[in-house]
Write a structure and sequence with these properties.
The chain contains 4 helices and 5 strands, in the order αβββαββαα. It is of the alpha+beta class. A hairpin with a 6-residue loop joins β4 (100-109) and β5 (116-125). α3 (139-159) packs antiparallel against α4.
């Protein structure tokens, strides 16, 4: 009879453990009264220490537990040993897109009465960092970029009107464009524009 009552107590204890594990997480208060430590769900009269609830399992941990449970059921039903399987974690989310940056160009041109200020703003999307395997620009590609920038500078100089220094600015811009075209021709490079 003692084996039956011991088995019954063990069964009740196990049922209590399973029921406690299935219950939602609650705060547990650790109370010390007259040197005796007790744990209770209600706040202590004084000197309360609140223990955080246990962490909830991740989706991968839940999936792994289901796979392990299925394997154990198979082994129990067939009597054959099955290999443990590992659940692969989901791939990480893609990185967020890079923010756009506003590029501001300010040109101050001296004038007779007051200097003229030209402000040009352009929204530029920041390119993601190139991969390590990205190659550096070739000489021709760099000349092509410089040529595009020189053409944009020349258009800015031509856009300014009624300035006494406009002719000098346009002449300098034309000279810079011609110099880049000459370098491209000497290096057998083909410019896009």
């Amino acid at each position: 009879m003692t084996n039956a009552s011991g088995s019954r107590r063990a069964g009740i204890a196990l049922a209590g453990l399973f029921w406690a594990a299935a219950a939602p997480a609650q705060e547990v208060h650790k109370c010390t009264v007259n040197g005796a430590v007790s744990y209770q769900p209600t706040p202590c009269p004084q000197g309360d220490v609140v223990l955080p609830p246990p962490p909830t399992p991740s989706d991968q941990e839940v999936s792994q537990a289901r796979v392990d449970q299925s394997r154990q059921r198979f082994q129990a039903a067939t009597g054959r040993i099955a290999r443990p399987m590992r659940v692969q974690p989901p791939p990480p989310p893609p990185p967020p897109p890079p923010p756009a940056v506003v590029s501001t160009t300010i040109i101050v041109l001296p004038g007779d009465a007051a200097p003229t200020v030209i402000v040009q703003q352009r929204r530029v999307a920041v390119a993601a960092r190139p991969a390590r395997s990205a190659r550096p620009l070739t000489h021709c590609e760099q000349l092509d970029r410089d040529h595009d920038q020189a053409l944009a500078n020349r258009e800015q100089a031509r856009a300014a009107t009624d300035l006494p220094t406009q002719a000098a600015l346009v002449k300098n811009a034309d000279t810079n464009v011609a110099r880049i075209v000459q370098l491209a021709t000497a290096g057998y490079c083909h410019l896009k524009h």
